[in-house]
Amino acid sequence: MSDAKLYKLNNLELTIGYAFSDLSLLELALTHRSYDAKHNERLEFLGDSILGMIIARKLYELFPNNPEGDLTRMRSSLVRETTLAQIAREFKLNEHLRLGLGEMKTGGSQRDSILADAVESIIAAMFLDSNENYALVKEVVLRWFESRLKDINPKVNQKDPKSTLQEMLQAVKKQLPVYNVDKITGSDNNQTFYVSVSLSDYNISFNGVGTSRRKAEQEAAAKAIEYLNK
Question: Which residue in the list 112, 117, 120, 129 is annotated as catalytic?
Fold first, then answer.
């Protein structure tokens, strides 16, 4: 491993708050299937389960009087793709991902799904590197989610705006929203998406802007929800 690569990975270790005994595990966690036949999908599978357990147990502890439905909604909000992608961006994982040329050209380093998968893969990599020390991994992961766990509220709708908008329209038997990408600007690894959502029964549309298509769609959906609530 080159000194430059080692330096970058060491900086990432400081960011995530865990020092690897075997840095090749961290490197594997950052490797997308487009880059190499040996990639992070198996780690992602394991990390998804570990993360779910950590968050479920913490919510069980924090909200002793809330029913299963509340706990499930809060867990879904915390472990969903958009939340994990936000954490990945806080860690600047996009600067460390190993992507194939095609993915790099199409902005894969900014894609929510790829970023979220990398977060789950790192969790699994820590678990394996620590000889399956669940308590240690839990401590690290809970630090990542500390502010979000403080802000989570069982009385607040935890669903993302796109899901909420769809359910609102279905409830009043209206046509489902239609999303369109109107424009994409910027370089391949620094794109901005301009999206609109149309509500045909109301003859109106709303715009959203984001660093990913999903993010822009969520913003547009949030504006539509605000309009419908009024």
Answer: 120
Contact 212, 114 (CB under 8 A): no
* ∠ CA 125-13-107, rounded to 5°: 80
Instruction: Summarize pLDDT for 41-95 with one digit per residue, the tens.
Output: 999 999 999 999 999 999 999 999 999 989 998 999 899 888 898 899 999 999 9
- Cα dist. 156→64, 159, 208, 225 in Å? 17, 9, 23, 15
Q: Which of 44, 48, 103, 112 is catalytic?
A: 48
Residue 180 and residue 213: Cα distance in Å, rounded? 10
| φ and ψ at residue 101, rounded to 5 degrees | -60, -40
Looking at residues 121-127, what average pLDDT do you find?
98
Q: Is 90 a catalytic residue?
A: no
The Cα 228–Cα 12 span in angstroms is 43
- Residue 118, pLDDT > 90, answer yes
Residue 48 is a catalytic residue: yes
pTM of the model: 0.71
> What whole-number distance in Å separates Cα of residue 79 and Cα of residue 106?
25
